[in-house]
Amino acid sequence: MFFVRIALLTSVSILVLLGILMIYVIGNPLETSPGAKLTNLAGYWKKQAVYAVVGVGGFVGANLVNYRRLGAVSYWLYAGVLVLLLLLVVSRHVMPLPLMPEINGAHCWIQFDLGGRAVNLQPSEFCKLAYILALAWYLRYRSNYRSFRALVGPFVLTLVPIVLILVEPDLGTVLLMMPVLFTMLFMAGARVKHLVLIVLLAVLVSPLLWHKIKPYQRSRISAVLLQSTWIRDQAERSPAVSNILIGREFSQRRWRWDWGYHIIHSKLAVASGGLAGAGFGRGDFTKYNFLPFRHTDFIFSVIAHQGGFLACLAFLGLYVIVVLCGLEIAADNIDPFARLLAVGIVAMFVVQGLVNVGMTLGLMPITGLTLPFVSYGGSSLLVNMMAVGLLNNVGRCRPFTVAPKR
Q1: Does 65 have pLDDT greater than 60?
Q2: Helix (H) or strand (E) holding 137
Q3: Per-residue burial over 347-385, b = 16 or more CB atoms within 10 Å of its CB, e = otherwise
Q4: 3-state secondary structure of 161
Q5: 214 by DSSP, 3-state: which?
Q6: Element (DSSP H or E) covering residue 112
Q7: For 222-241, how does the pLDDT look when each residue is reduced to its tens digit (9 = 90+)?
Q8: Cα gap 181→175, rounded to integer Å
Q9: Cα separation of 125 and 33, whole Å?
Q10: Taken in order 17, 22, 25, 30, is the CA torsion positive or negative?
Q11: What distance, in Å, lies between the first and last C-alpha atoms of the chain?
């Protein structure tokens, strides 16, 4: 188990360092042209390096006490995060609250001053970890998941933060929590027929929910389908199809420069990388501002553009090591809470990685989920490092006997 934990920490450390390096290159490309329009990202790598140091502190903090003691207070941690999410909802819809500004049309951050610099904390990021802790603690008893009626508790634990986060709005975290829930329920031993029935009910209800979401949210999800020329032609010819897909009139020009802009340019960046890429710090998508948010949501596109298919394989290989180490830690532990906690964290990493890479390739809707350990962002990196700390804690403090399930 010692070598498993070493492999886990080594892979995560490499990913964090490579992320800082990619953010540096995005802000300081080796190739520049006179009059090139560059975003003001030159100093972001320094901020990410500071976030990484804070993340190391979060990793250490997650190892200070036995994971079971954290489980005992997990409901309080979960409730504390819900209060923060509720305050963000109040600030958006009831009355503006201090320290909770609107950024990019959403109330997702708590902003405070630290040494003359504005620091943003995103409660929905911390909600991921608090939710996994609380759910694993709840599911540690067999009676909490084996019957259909017993699944009400886990779904209430999930749906309460989902509703609060959707109102912010933050679609990415919502898309992450449901797969994590089903993964943990399956690994806990919930009956497959119950999970299938819930999925079928969700499919039946989805048309009603589809018409309740806002047009810009529809356009993000429908953008995956609208990559098809045939579907775009149908949407342009038929107002009914256009209304179903995006809730407004469709136009090819608006698709190229608005709804589909990110997907189109992300796929161009990935495809232009070829086998070996344009080279470190080189390439048009590195030195020009063709692709917005390329230091956060679309950093994988820049990796593919600079390093090509081979670099993508290397990056994804590091994630595979992280996932396998996490699963080994879960399998080697006889404590139900520890196993569920480890599986939940691994599921969080898998879903984040698949959704982020999928949206850069046009296979998933653009949701704002960052690439774990690599994308720029303090809250995301801190939470992911704390999650790795909990994995290490589970592997380090695993018990040799445990009370039987009830």
Answers
A1: yes
A2: helix 123-138
A3: bbbbbbbebbbbbbebebbbbbbbbbbbbbbbbbbbbbb
A4: helix
A5: coil
A6: strand 110-114
A7: 888 889 899 988 888 888 88
A8: 11
A9: 38
A10: positive
A11: 28
